[in-house]
Design goal:
The structure is a homodimer. Chain A has about 350 residues and is of the alpha/beta class. In chain A, about 40% of the residues lie in helices and about 15% in strands. Chain B binds a DNA duplex (16 and 16 nucleotides) through helix 2 and helix 4.
Chain lengths: ~350, ~350
DNA sequence: ATGAAAGCGCTAACAC
DNA sequence: GTGTTAGCGCTTTCAT
């Protein structure tokens, strides 16, 4: 840093051409003789000029080539979540070759102070991706709207200006529910994702169930009911983590009236339930069936393979990337709902008689 | 985007002041009357101007406020690795409040084509963080050097212009090795991290062991020897993943001459070894001891807690962030080696007699 | 305390 | 083909 390097003007002067010609030599956009071009390139090399300063280019073109990725209020949770990670991977993989960068932006803490994150407030980004998804009135979304930044929303309310990408998890859960019923299960419990940001844990009564703020949770639960299953109990967790699934499993699978099947609203939760069941001496897939959703690869569950509703995470990330690119190009991508598929594992089986 | 929003000039005009005054109203740097300031702010609100365009500011100041994070050649692997993730988390957490953004940059594929990633080549960043660490001649590092971007290297060769952050994993491994010897273990096997990018799997002979390209692997292995342990066998893995640890465990713990202890060069590998040992009917911590390094939280290993060498991952990320900020401010941070600590779990015990 | 003017480095019209 | 001329939106001396 410090000493500002040579500029395009320096190179042009050294090469004995005008600045605009030098610019063409680098961008390649426009007519230019091979010799002139080479002359410029040589001069650049001599001055150890490393190419046009992106800042100048950005100001001129009005675009930064940066896609802001707004991750849930606690970044650390987003990073721990294999689901977000895989989507992020697909996204970066798609955007990179397009020359677009991914800027990580912590979401504003909705619960805490109203003081927004400086990045969300003012970082240069041409389009934002909302991993948190969520309602239209989330403060991150309001901030971005105000700035006029178009957004790609993952699994949330459709944005006014932007795109929406999601998966048919509702349909997937309905399908799963039907399959469990077909296996003879009648007492089915649900281990749910968080209802909102308030980190409650335990059985959720009907009233509480009517007050779900997180769309994904609401939708997956609705899917189960759509599949004809009325859960004997819905257990709310504070986060989609193995340990919370295990805690739920211990609570639900103890006692005489235990359910014959447990549906968890994420694979991480489901795997916790499997571990708890094993702890309690239950044979998973026989004494109790457990299923999740996401389609994660969980090698440490071996020899079991979790029965799950597979969602195409990488593809989701790629779709988000394409939508962002289209938005950047001035288009208006249609809302996209990706299909899910049932993955039969070893953790489900006929209801014990 | 499309319709460019109002500019500072528009606001100034609406407020009946000059552009420079309007600028002061926003930056706060300089003398300005409260009334004038308010007048400007009101005009801005009326025009729904959302604050100075970062691009203009950046061009003027010559800095983008962006820290490029160069993640290993396969981003997806970096994202799957809880170690990188936690460091990344600490980094973002530190940089965010400083108003600095984290830009994800895929590293150039050293094996593949020499065509560098467009982002690495030309994205605006004031400083880069190299997660891959690595040797001074890695192509990503060469590219950044050429661009004159200072770098913070994590666990690698010290950069010419930049900072170096690492942990004393060598010392930690030496300590671990001594403790195992003190427990009476004499036949100790090592499950190693990858030696380089060539994804080999299996026993590494002496010749192969002399050809380790990844510094971290080399250093941790050296630490074990420094602790007085000459491994009876070194098993090379293609990636730090549970399944590869499990494969190693199955291979190493079968047969009559099996080691009484296994040291893995990562916790993920170690946990795979634990799973394999359980599969084989061995009591971990009694029949065989297993230890790792990283200090990950592995709830699904319950009821076992892995014996490990704890490295302060979050702190590492924070230190990287601070070093980046210091570099940005023109400083020259000293190389930093963070301490590690031994974490005794349930997976190690006295050697069986 | 405020305004005028210069210019950060670059690209895009347009003229030659 | 190449050069000339304007800015992109902002900050920052330097006058006033």
């Amino acid at each position: 840093m410090g000493a500002r390097g040579p500029t395009l003007a320096d190179v042009a002067q050294a090469a004995g051409v005008s600045v605009s010609t030098a610019s063409l030599a680098f961008s390649g956009a426009g007519p230019i003789t091979a010799t002139t071009r080479q002359k410029v390139l040589d001069a650049a090399a001599a001055l150890s000029y490393v190419g046009p300063n992106p800042l100048g280019r950005q100001l001129r073109s009005g675009r930064s080539g940066i896609v802001g990725v707004v991750l849930g209020d606690a970044l650390r949770r987003a990073f721990r979540d294999p689901v977000s990670i895989q989507v992020l991977d697909g996204l970066v993989q798609t955007l990179g070759p397009l020359g677009l960068g991914v800027l990580l932006v912590p979401a504003v803490d909705d619960a805490g102070e109203p003081r927004a994150d400086p990045l969300l407030e003012s970082a240069g980004m041409d389009v934002a991706v909302l991993f948190s998804g969520g309602r239209a009135d989330d403060s991150s979304r309001v901030t971005l709207d105000r700035r006029g930044v178009p957004v790609v929303v993952i699994e949330g309310d459709p944005p006014e200006h932007g795109a929406l990408i999601g998966v048919d998890d509702r349909g997937g859960m309905a399908d799963l529910a039907r399959r469990l019923r077909a296996l003879g299960h009648e007492r089915i419990a649900v281990v749910a994702l968080p209802f909102g940001g308030d980190r409650r844990e335990g059985v959720a009564d009907a009233e509480r169930q009517a007050d779900i703020r997180w769309l994904v949770t609401e939708r997956r639960l609705a899917g189960i009911r759509e599949g004809g299953v009325e859960p004997v109990v819905v257990w709310e967790t504070p986060a989609s983590l193995v340990e919370h699934g295990a805690a739920a499993g211990r609570a639900l699978l103890t006692g005489p009236d235990r359910p014959t099947a447990v549906i968890a609203l994420s694979d991480l939760l489901a795997s916790g339930v499997v571990l708890a069941a094993r702890e309690l001496g239950l044979r998973v897939g026989h004494d109790v069936s457990v299923a999740g959703i996401d389609g994660l690869d969980l090698p440490w569950l071996a020899p079991d393979v979790l029965t799950s509703v597979d969602q195409p995470l990488r593809l989701k990330g790629e779709s988000v990337g394409l939508a962002a690119a289209e938005l950047l190009a001035g288009g208006s991508p249609e809302p996209l709902v990706l299909p899910v598929s049932f993955r039969e594992g070893t953790t489900t089986g006929p209801a014990p008689s």
